[in-house]
Amino acid sequence: MITHWLGRTPYQACFDAMVDFTQRRQPDTDDELWMCEHPRVFTQGLAGKAEHVLDAGGIDVVQTNRGGQVTYHGPGQVVAYPLVDLKRAGYFVKEYVYRLEEAVIRTLDHFGVTGHRVAGAPGIYVRLNDPGNHSPLPQRPQKGATGAGGAGPDFDGLGKIAALGIKVSRNCTYHGLSLNVDMDLAPFERINPCGYAGLRTVDLSTIGVQTRWDDAAQLLSQKLTALLAP
Question: I need a labelling partner for 193 at 20 to 30 A (CA). Which of 53, 88, 125, 145 fits?
Answer without folding.
Answer: 145
